[in-house]
């Protein structure tokens, strides 16, 4: 499929004039006109990206942002063969960055009643702006094969701070933040999971520019396939919203979980084929003080109650085979002098993962790649050490336990793959102390444990992503997910397959 602005938006080119949409196959009650950018111009369509709705076979959202008001933000939707035949108006949400005072407007066009497993083309536009094009493929309805991908901890490859006359990166980003995006797009997943710490705007001099740079880097993929995020500790920005996530909550329009306005969008779920994906914000239960403000317990247990109800619903649904959890902080880690595992998550959520048979947990936070054996149950010690249910590393029956993957090499400039304990050990945060006046953070209390749950660790590569190929199998047999971790080793998304294994479980129907 080859589309161009010239071919899709034919008409007069007078400055400040209007162009009539002239595409064969358009069915519209009235001709769609749009104003060409005038001499003063209008802000461009920036940061174009997609999200799935709760039912990924029929719901999606097209989003973009501006820092000034615009008229008639909208999306033209159509098919690759028939052109644009539908206009969907976008709603606008805003936040004002507490550091700069800049107000950001994010325009969300909600697409519903889409056809399962179908390719669409769309154009996002507002009056006076040039349209930006994208494509979307909806998820299959029911059991079908598809691929999804995952990484966390990206930052941006751009330079945003002037230091002694030289521009530097001030959000823990590196050039690999762009290379990993190219690699993901090359893998062409149905959707991509971003396991928290997206752009580290809370560390940067200009938070607005950092978010804009992150979307500019990733829109080359996120305009073609939904990038579904989890909020990490570095999405917590001082002064932005009641608990610090106002920017994140505004930029992304994720499925509604029924939470209140303060916590809207911080946890959610969606279904693609026979996979239920559950995205969590574990700053709520993690003990570590890692954001701009300490928000442990912010939901008052609401997220935990929602999580249990969601897991119970998914596991009792005969159309759902797989439960995948995406979150940021980790249950397992075998590196020294980094963040470590968190007892708060082990105590609050791991028993729920065990009770309802979660198959897979993908995380970031630690800036390397490793995975666990399937774990089920915990030792009765101070760290609640997970118990491996099996030690096979090639084919893993997830009915026996949950596999945890740390995929934190999305591009950050401070990788942790050189810090692995040998033999494998784990530092677990079991408490926090008073605020350290030198750091402004509550000091973590660590306890060291053995790591019998450790299955695979990549010492040699700092950056990469994981790809998951879902095979629905046949009635009466097994369904599988083939997992490959790809190290990203250079520009243009050059990759090397480092780890391969298969998850298997009986198909529900």
TrEMBL record:
In terms of superkingdom, the source organism counts as Bacteria
The protein here is known as: Metallophosphoesterase family protein
Report residue spans for region: Disordered.
Answer: 371-392
- Carries keyword Mitochondrion? no
In terms of InterPro entries, this protein maps to: Calcineurin-like_PHP, Metallo-depent_PP-like, PAPs-like, PAPs_N, Purple_acid_Pase-like_N, TAT_signal
Residue ranges of domain Calcineurin-like phosphoesterase in the record: 190-369
Domain (Purple acid phosphatase N-terminal): give its ranges: 47-128
One Pfam family of this chain:
Pur_ac_phosph_N
- Signal peptide stretch: none
């Amino acid at each position: 499929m080859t589309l161009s602005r010239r071919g899709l938006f034919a008409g007069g080119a007078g400055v400040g004039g209007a162009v009539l949409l002239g595409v064969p196959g358009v069915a519209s009650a009235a001709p769609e006109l749009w104003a060409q950018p005038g001499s003063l111009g209008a802000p461009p369509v920036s940061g174009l990206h997609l999200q799935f709705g709760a039912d990924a076979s029929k719901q999606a959202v097209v989003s973009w942002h501006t820092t000034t008001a615009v008229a008639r933000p909208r999306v033209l939707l159509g098919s690759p063969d028939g052109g644009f035949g539908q206009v969907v108006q976008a709603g606008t949400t805003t936040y004002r960055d507490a550091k700069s005072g800049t107000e950001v407007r994010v325009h969300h066009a909600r697409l519903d009643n889409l056809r399962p497993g179908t390719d669409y083309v769309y154009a996002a536009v507002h009056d006076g702006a040039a349209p930006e094009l994208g494509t979307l493929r909806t998820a299959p309805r029911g059991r079908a094969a598809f691929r999804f991908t995952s990484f966390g901890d990206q930052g941006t490859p751009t330079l945003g701070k002037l230091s002694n006359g030289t521009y530097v990166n001030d959000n823990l980003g590196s050039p690999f933040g762009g290379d990993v995006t190219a690699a993901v797009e090359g893998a062409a997943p149905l959707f991509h999971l971003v396991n928290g710490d997206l752009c580290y705007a809370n560390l940067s001099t200009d938070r607005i520019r950092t978010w804009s740079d992150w979307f500019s880097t990733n829109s080359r993929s996120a305009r073609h396939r939904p990038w579904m995020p989890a909020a990490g500790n570095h999405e917590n920005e001082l002064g932005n919203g009641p608990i610090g996530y106002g920017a994140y909550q505004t930029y992304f329009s994720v499925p509604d979980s029924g939470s209140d306005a303060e916590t809207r969008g911080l946890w959610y779920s969606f279904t693609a084929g026979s996979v239920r994906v559950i995205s969590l914000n574990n700053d709520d239960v993690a003990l570590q003080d890692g954001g701009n403000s300490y928000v442990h317990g912010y939901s008052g247990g609401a997220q935990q109650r929602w999580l249990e109800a969601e897991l119970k619903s998914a596991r009792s649904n005969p159309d759902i085979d797989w439960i995948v959890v995406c979150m940021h902080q980790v249950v397992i880690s075998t590196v020294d002098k980094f963040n470590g595992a968190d007892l708060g998550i082990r105590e609050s959520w791991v028993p729920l993962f065990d009770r309802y048979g979660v198959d897979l947990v993908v995380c970031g936070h630690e800036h390397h790649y490793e995975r666990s054996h399937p774990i089920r149950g915990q030792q009765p010690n101070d760290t609640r050490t997970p118990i491996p249910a099996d030690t096979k590393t090639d084919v893993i029956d997830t009915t026996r336990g949950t596999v945890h993957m740390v995929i934190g090499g999305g591009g950050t400039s401070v990788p942790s793959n050189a810090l692995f304990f040998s033999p494998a050990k784990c530092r677990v945060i079991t408490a926090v102390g008073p605020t350290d006046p030198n750091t402004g953070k509550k000091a973590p209390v660590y306890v060291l444990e053995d790591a019998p749950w450790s299955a695979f660790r990549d010492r040699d590569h700092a950056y990469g992503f994981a790809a998951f190929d879902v095979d629905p199998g046949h009635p009466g047999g097994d369904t599988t997910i083939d997992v490959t971790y790809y190290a990203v080793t250079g520009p243009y998304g050059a990759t090397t397959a480092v780890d391969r294994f298969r998850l298997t479980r009986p198909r529900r129907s």
